[in-house]
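Forgive a beginner's question, but would it be possible to get any protein sequence you like and the tokens describing how it folds?
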Amino acid sequence: MFSAFYAMVSAFVSGHSTVIFPVVLASYVPVLDPVYLFLFYF
């Protein structure tokens, strides 16, 4: 599962890191969901 996560991040880190990274982190770490929403949208 971690390899798929790393592959997804490395694939989208080129241009869509601002959108994909917080979404993936929110999916894997639900506790940080409001934190990333606050940082990226406010």
In short: Residues 2-41 form one domain.
